[in-house]
Design a protein that fits this description.
Order of helices and strands: EHEHEHHHEEHEEEEEEEHH
CATH superfamily of one domain: Metallo-dependent phosphatases
CATH class of one domain: Alpha Beta
Distance between the termini: 35 Å
Number of strands: 12
Largest sheet: 6 strands, mixed
CATH topology of one domain: Purple Acid Phosphatase, chain A, domain 2
CATH architecture of one domain: 4-Layer Sandwich
Bound molecules: zinc ion
Number of helices: 8
Shape: globular
Structural class: alpha/beta
Length: 258
């Protein structure tokens, strides 16, 4: 059922391994590539924007419906089903939202419509944008991060929406560090509260066109977060977008990750 948490499969090591995905944006080729790459995981958590921009919205919703133990709505998901308006969308995003609205099946619409905007699963809170504004806020700077650290109860928070893999961390002196994340092995999250963005599966915007996601490992004592980047057949998605009549700029930007 949408938004509910199924029992954890549990491993003999006592470690729960989670694939954290965000901003898939109906890019099935990118999603299939990361799915191949993550190996054995106990759970899949999706931080929203399953659809919008890309050519395969129903296929992506079906995959997430089957795989995700937690799934949140993004602004593009709810715009495509008319649950929020597209006044704040740029013309290209609006055109894609209209294309997506016409393409979505009744099952996909029902699934997206029933998702909850915020989910707490110790030791993390999950939202699409930010704790302050779960659907809309782009959390990209330290001053916004400072306000948002006061707006969730758990140790850490997982966000998407900006399509940029990054981390904010509290320091003992009260300052907040911000840094872009690279695929350089597991980060140990002890010693600070963190806000973490795994980047975008289906439309990266940090200059690296490879699909982005993260593996979160929790053993009840410590938590580790590992950013991953995966190559996928970009031309395949671009060709399907052109065939679908989606705006050209949206297909072009996949090649540069900008
Ligand atoms: Zn998005």
């Amino acid at each position: 059922m949408a938004g509910t948490i199924r029992p954890v499969r549990g491993t003999i090591t006592g470690v729960t391994r989670v694939a954290v995905v965000a901003d898939i944006h109906a890019n099935l080729a990118a999603f299939e590539a990361i799915r191949q790459s993550w190996g054995d995981v106990d759970e899949v958590w999706c931080l929203g924007d399953l659809v919008g921009y890309g050519p395969d919205p129903n296929e992506c919703v079906e995959r997430l419906q089957a795989l995700a133990t937690i799934c949140l709505p993004g602004n593009h998901d709810w715009a495509a089903i008319g649950k929020i308006d597209t006044d704040e969308f740029n013309p290209v995003a609006k055109a894609a939202a209209e294309w997506t609205a016409a393409a979505l099946s009744e099952d996909s619409r029902a699934f997206l419509g029933a998702l909850r905007e915020k989910v707490v699963r110790e030791p993390v809170t999950l939202v699409h944008g930010s704790p302050r504004s779960p659907l809309w806020e782009y959390l990209l700077d330290v001053s916004a991060a400072r306000v948002n650290f006061g707006l969730f109860e758990t140790e850490h928070c997982l966000i998407g929406h900006s399509h940029v893999p990054l981390m904010f961390a509290t320091r003992e002196d009260g300052r907040i560090d911000a840094r872009l994340l690279q695929p350089e092995g597991p980060l140990h999250l002890a010693g600070a509260r963190r806000i973490l963005n795994p980047g975008s599966v289906g439309q990266p915007r940090d200059g690296d066109p490879r699909a982005s996601y993260a593996i979160l490992e929790m053993d009840g004592v410590s938590t580790r977060f590992e950013l991953r980047r995966v190559e996928y057949p970009i031309e395949e998605t671009q060709a399907r977008m052109r065939l679908a009549g989606l705006p050209k700029q949206l297909a072009d930007r996949l090649a540069t990750g900008r």
